[in-house]
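Sorry to interrupt, but I need a hand with the structure work. It will help me judge whether the discrete encoding reads sensibly. Write everything out right here, beneath this request:
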Amino acid sequence: MLKNKIYNYLFSEIFKNFLTILLTFTAIAWTVRAVNFLDLMIDDGYSASIYFRYSILNISTIVTRFVPLSFLLSLIISILKFERQQELMILWSAGLEKRQIVNIFFLISFFIAVIQVILGLIVNPFLLNKSRTLLRETEVKQVSSLLKLNDFSDSLKGVTFYIDKKNANGELVNIFIKDSTGTLNLIVNEVNSTNNTTIFAKKGFVSENKLILFDGTIQTLNEKKEIKNVQFKKTELNISKFSNRTIKQAKIQETSSLILFKCMLNKDINIILENCSFQNNKKIVIENLSRRIGMPLYIPLVSIIASFLLIYSREKKYNFIKKYIIFGFAFIILVFAEILLRYTGFSTVNVTLYFFSPLIIFIILYFILIKNLNTERITR
């Protein structure tokens, strides 16, 4: 009963520190990324609600990236706290062996690794795909943000705007619009005859997602290279007919893990799988799958490295610098994992090295740790 309480206490303290550090890192990184996402409103014309929903759907990927480092810091901070408050001495007095504490650390790391696998394989691709779908299925609402003064704006695909100035009442003056998509051909009944339309207007204003133009000319260039001009007193352009330059197709990190496995295993390049336009570049697929499955393997390794703090040294100087040495070594392992991950798609050797390195190092360090703990117990 007493040991169960001790185990629950250790787990709660470590997990509490882990969540605190993870949420802190996530909040900082998400704030920085959310600032980058402001382009969705400023340049692409999406509403504020779409911007916030898109930003929130990207939080899970940030969380996943910081899991290994957050666990390393939480474990080291917890061990140092237990040692400083003499709680470890109480545990030894209660008959709890250091090897049992190491096993507890490993079980906690295994639990967190499973969570990261679930996030990487299932949750992250699903939420990221949802965020991309959100942009794909949402019309541009903030038309005014697309129209910049004294600058050629090409936020909409195939369409260029130029606005000379804006009056105090919000009226636009001297408007130039160049369309190379053929969308504006409907205005002059030149459907399928040209993809080159230019509009000049003296005045105009924005109403919802429409651009109302006054006193202007619509100029089209047909297939015979003949220019046709149409004068107008008033006309309306529905901006929602145009598409912005935001990438609508799902990126590889937004693709289901099941689809990526099919892309990787498909050997017949003549068979085009659904949502697998990147199947011919399988090294990118392998790299993404390696991140989703392989990175969690380094979390138990981190727990073993941090467990070396449990080894007592009679030299106080060594005890002081030991925490920095252990943290530095574990941090180098995580950096090594990130670097090696970039090369997993280049060869089978790199993939094998990436997946088996943490397992081999874990076994070696575990036996070294247990040997030192047993020697310490005998000499004590």
About this structure: Confidence is low (pLDDT under 50) at residues 188-192, 268-273. The first strand starts at residue 152 and ends at 153. The two ends are 27 Å apart (CA to CA).
